[in-house]
Structures are given as structure tokens and as C-alpha cells.
Amino acid sequence: MLPARSTRSAQRALMCLCDPTRFRIVRALEATELAAGDIAIVIARSRSATSHHLRILSGASAVRGRRDGNVVRYSLADDLTTQVLRDLGAAFDRFAPKISGGSNAPSR
Description:
With 108 residues, the protein is an alpha+beta fold. The chain has a single domain (4-95), classed as Orthogonal Bundle (Arc Repressor Mutant, subunit A), CATH 1.10.10.10. It has helices spanning 4-17, 20-31, 36-43, 47-59, 80-95; strands at 34-35, 63-68, 71-76. A three-stranded antiparallel beta sheet has the order 1-3-2. It is globular.
């Protein structure tokens, strides 16, 4: 059984993944550090919506921001929460439908 503090941290991490936008942000940040505006482009959301989700992810200790001049660059935090998010993402990827033939259209 997890101690109370670890249980709360795990719960926050899992709640972050319940939202598809936050899940896409985490997946985008796995590859590289990105500015908030770049994240908005990658996930096809407005900057304000992206900032809202980044605040939630920061509060759950899943991402951290680093100021570079007047730009804040985000990356995944190096802690247990990030590992949980990565492991869950990898597990979900295993259950994603396999697409064959290079087409995203369902077969008829």
C-alpha cells in the first residue's frame, strides 16, 4: 500500500491524463522542451487553453517551466509523477488500434 503522500501524487498524475489535451501535451514534451506557443501549435489548441492545461500539469509536478528571456520553455519534470505519466502513455499505446495499409480510414 502506498503512503498517503504517494497516493495523492499518483492520483494527481492520473487525473492529468484523464484530459486528452493534457495527455497530448505530455506526449509532445517527451521528445523535447517546447515553448507554450509551440505546444499550442503541436496540439492544435489556442494559447490560452494550452496555458490553462500547462498550469494544471505544473501543479501536478508533471511539467516544469524554464524562463529563457521572455519565453517560458516547458519540459517534463524529473520525478515519479513523470514516470507514471510515461508508463501509462506507453501502456495506452499498446492498446491503440493498429492501422495497416497506411490509411486512417476504417475498412468497410
